[in-house]
Amino acid sequence: MDKFVIEGGTPLHGSIATSGAKNSALPELAAALLTDEPVILRRIPRVRDIRTMERLLVDIGSDVAEDGEQVTINTPKILSPEAPYELVKTMRASSLVLGPLVARAGRARVSLPGGCGIGARPINLHLKGLEHLGAKIEQSHGYIEAVAPNGLKGGRITFDRITVTGTEDILMAAVLASGESVIENAAREPEVVDLAEMLIKMGAQIEGAGTSTIRVNGVSKLHGVTHEIIADRIEAGTFLIAGAISGGDLRVTGCVPEHVAALTSKMIEAGVRITDEGGGTLRVQGGTTLSPVDMRTEEFPGFATDLQAQYMALMTQADGISFISETIFENRFMHAQELIRMGARIRLDGRQATIAGRSYLTGAGVIASDLRASASLVLAALVAKGETVIDRVYHIDRGYEKIEEKLSGVGARISRVD
Ligand code: EPZ
Questions:
Q1: DSSP 8-class letter at 94
Q2: Ligand 1 atom 39 nearest Cα
Q3: Does residue 359 have its Cβ closer than 6 Å to ligand 1?
Q4: Which of 51, 88, 221, 388 is paired with 413 by a 20 to 30 Å CA distance?
Q5: Cα–Cα distance between 345 and 360 in angstroms, integer?
Q6: CA angle at 224 for the pair 209 and 212, rounded to the nearest 5°
Q7: Is ligand 1 within 6 A of the CB of residue 310?
Q8: Domain 3-19+231-417 homologous superfamily, CATH
Q9: How far apart are CA 397 and CA 242, in angstroms?
Q10: CA distance 63 to 253
Q11: pLDDT (tens digit, 9 = 90+) per residue, 143-177?
Q12: Atom 1, ligand 1: residue with shortest CA distance
């Protein structure tokens, strides 16, 4: 099982490029099922979750051809509208094929995702949405069976709470439903907007993506498309924090500054110098004394829950007490115990964390638990004195493309050992 060995204390200098967004690529790969014409996705990140989704598409009946950062998906026919437990248990985002399969093939059999470290993460809202589009849903033996033998009909869906993949799943079902659909309390994340833009290029009629009300006029067929995936805002945010926590001077290139505005405004308030140099480059200069700045996670455009762990690592270096509230998931502080082992002073109380900085971190043996918690351990290791060994880095490989190569390219002393 791979480990990262990191020697702390080196400020990062230079430029680090952002890859395409994993959380855009996943729904957009699923969207390829909606047409029998070729779909080409550019700037696809080479991370584990993407390979898992590509495998699932092949099982369903797609031909998937990778060519560097481009992948071509051809699905002339849906052979098996199923997402088996073996795949879903490794990646809950497999539920993103639900909507496209019911829309294209009139039925889907998808394993219910099991538990997840960061919370229960049910998909009840996805299922309720499909029912509002006329699908019949049954559950048995850990699987969801969804059928719409006469096709989906447009309907009004109001999500009880904002769900990113729930919005994406229903959007992908509605585009081929007959009639108009309205999605209320929709997620506004950039990844939802990017998916909508791809669907519109395929011939879908969508208005309001990026707002909390999305209107869809169903069409009978969608055609192929070539689409470039947006930059990964979570990866970009992680690198911005890396530049700050290491006291370096780093340019993060190929990102979308407004997609990380909630993070950069908090970092600037804490005393980090961040400059938008234009053309998708953000320059971050650390080294100044950091002030503690409270933060609570919110749906976009609020502070992303996927950057909470990384921000907590930064706040261990701030001079004073800061409070972090995690409002999206019920158990997303697993990184705290590992940071404490490195010398951080953190107290947890349910969904609230209190961080008493500044703490001088020292290298330690730590264990990655989930994708973003693992990233926060890498960040802490960059500033910790001595050597940190991070075990179970397959978690990181799920969502960060060659992170050790990108970081060592800007001076980090990090290596992967098996
Ligand atoms: C997406 O997950 C992201 N994954 C997550 O990123 C991200 O943390 C999350 O959105 C929040 O921004 C992908 O896009 C592939 P939700 P998703 O549905 O869609 C509850 C990463 O690190 N809920 O917006 O699964 C749910 O339990 C991953 O890349 C229901 O109760 O998240 C959670 O508390 C981690 N019923 C809240 O809503 C449902 O049917 C928000 O979840 C659906 C969700």
A1: G
A2: 123
A3: no
A4: 51
A5: 10
A6: 10
A7: no
A8: Enolpyruvate transferase domain (3.65.10.10)
A9: 17
A10: 33
A11: 999 999 899 999 999 999 999 999 999 999 999 99
A12: 164
CA distance 395 to 74: 29
> What spacing in Å lies between the alpha carbon of 208 and ligand 1's midpoint?
21
CA of 307 to the centre of ligand 1 (A): 14
Residue closest via CA to ligand 1's atom 16 equals 163
Tell me if the bond preceding 190 is cis, omega within 30° of 0.
Answer: no
Ligand 1 proximity of 372 Cβ (cutoff 6 Å): yes
d(C-alpha 335, C-alpha 375), whole Å: 9
Kindly state if the Cβ of 91 falls inside 6 Å of ligand 1.
no
Tell whether the torsion through CA atoms of 42, 394, 306 and 362 is positive or negative: negative
Of 52, 121, 63, 62, the residue nearest 87 (C-alpha): 52
Q: Is the CB of 170 under 6 A from ligand 1?
A: no
For residue range 358-417, list pLDDT tens digits in order: 999 999 999 988 899 999 999 999 999 999 999 999 999 999 999 999 999 999 999 999
Task: State mean pLDDT over 307-322.
Answer: 98
Domain boundaries, given as residue ranges, for the chain: 3-19+231-417, 22-228
Res 120 pLDDT > 90: no
Going from the C-alpha of 125 to that of each of 184, 260, 415, the distances in angstroms are 12, 27, 42
Which positions are annotated as active-site residues?
Answer: 116
Fold matches, 3-19+231-417 and 22-228: yes
Residue among 29, 91, 233, 328 to mutate when testing ligand 1 (max atoms within 8 A of CB):
328
Strand duo 107-111 + 82-83: pairing:
parallel
Preceding omega of 358 cis (within 30 degrees of 0) = yes
Q: Please indicate whether residue 165, judged by its CB atom, sits closer than 6 Å to ligand 1.
A: yes
Please give the model's pTM, rounded to 2 decimal places: 0.97
For ligand 1, atom 38, the nearest C-alpha belongs to: 163
**Domain 22-228 top-level CATH class:** alpha beta
